[in-house]
Amino acid sequence: MTVPVFLEFVEIKTKLASLFPFVLGTLFTLYRFGSINALNTILFFIAMVVFDMATTAINNTMDFVKAKNLVYRDEENILGKAGISVKKAATIIVSMIAFAALLGLILTARTNLLLLAIGALCFAIGILYTFGPFPISRMPLGEVASGLTMGFGIFFIAVFVNVPAGTLASLLLQWPNFTLAGNVANLLIILLQSAPLVFSIANIMLANNICDYETDISNHRYTLTFYIGKPIAVRLYSWLYYGAFAATSVSVLFGIYPVWMLFIWAIFPVIQRNIHRFKAKQDKATTFNLAIKNLILYHGLEIILLIVSLILK
């Protein structure tokens, strides 16, 4: 397998969805807690990217195996186009998961046992997203799973590996007893800060499923769009973006974010224009990428404003 084929197999260009939660989580840790652990951050970044690539590879492989539409399987799916065998694809996937798991165990040893439980849950969701008899992506849970796992999960872990033990939560095991402790205020803050990420990442999956509505039905994929109907799904697409702006504004109101973060509203007209364009036409080739552009616009500006806040602080 050549490097270009591998990069298409893992869809490397889509990894922005995991990069933004990582960067924002790290910056927020610096701003809110004044804490950073460089080695833990690097280890987590590598593990995160490798596992994200593995889940995408699983998705492409399972789409190939379960495809009912033969034209899609042989001409659009990377396994069919590049002639990659399912066995070879499985070997690559298992290798990536094993490597990411090893890094996760090292991070657990360097932080707290709770990270093992959180990591295992994220791994389970990522693998079962498209693997198994009832994959999450073929049910009306795909948007929720992708949004929470990447938007909240990555943001949370990026903070967790950088702050002192007990700042967020901790798990102590003294066999046969265990103790789970945490700071409710800090956990709620992390949940609120990650909300815009949860919404924008979920919208990428939602936009994808809206655009693939007819193809998904032909391939027996019954996503959220199938159950709530395309018109409501399109409205939900816009509501999630409005929710992101609302969450950031509430953060400023409660003094979690600095007032500078309200400049995020400067891009509202652009986001709104992109929403209207998607409402007018839902097409994979021309308007699906508006969800990715909105994610880059919103969280790119969010990163800039956080950096400014750090400098001014």
Automatic annotation (TrEMBL):
CDD domains: PT_UbiA_UBIAD1
Topology in membrane: Multi-pass membrane protein
Spans traversing the lipid bilayer: 12-31, 38-58, 89-107, 114-132, 152-173, 185-206, 239-271, 292-312
Pathway(s) served: Quinol/quinone metabolism; menaquinone biosynthesis
Keyword check for Transmembrane helix: yes
The entry's keywords: Membrane, Menaquinone biosynthesis, Transferase, Transmembrane, Transmembrane helix
Location in the cell: Membrane
GO cellular component: membrane
Gene3D superfamilies in UniProt: UbiA prenyltransferase
Name of protein: 1,4-dihydroxy-2-naphthoate octaprenyltransferase
PANTHER family: 1,4-DIHYDROXY-2-NAPHTHOATE OCTAPRENYLTRANSFERASE, UBIA PRENYLTRANSFERASE DOMAIN-CONTAINING PROTEIN 1
Main location: membrane
Biological processes annotated in GO: menaquinone biosynthetic process; vitamin K biosynthetic process
Annotated source species: Trichococcus ilyis
NCBIfam families with a match to the protein in the record: PRK06080.1-4, PRK13387.1
InterPro entries for the chain: UbiA_prenyltransferase, UbiA_sf, UBIAD1
Gene Ontology MF term list: prenyltransferase activity
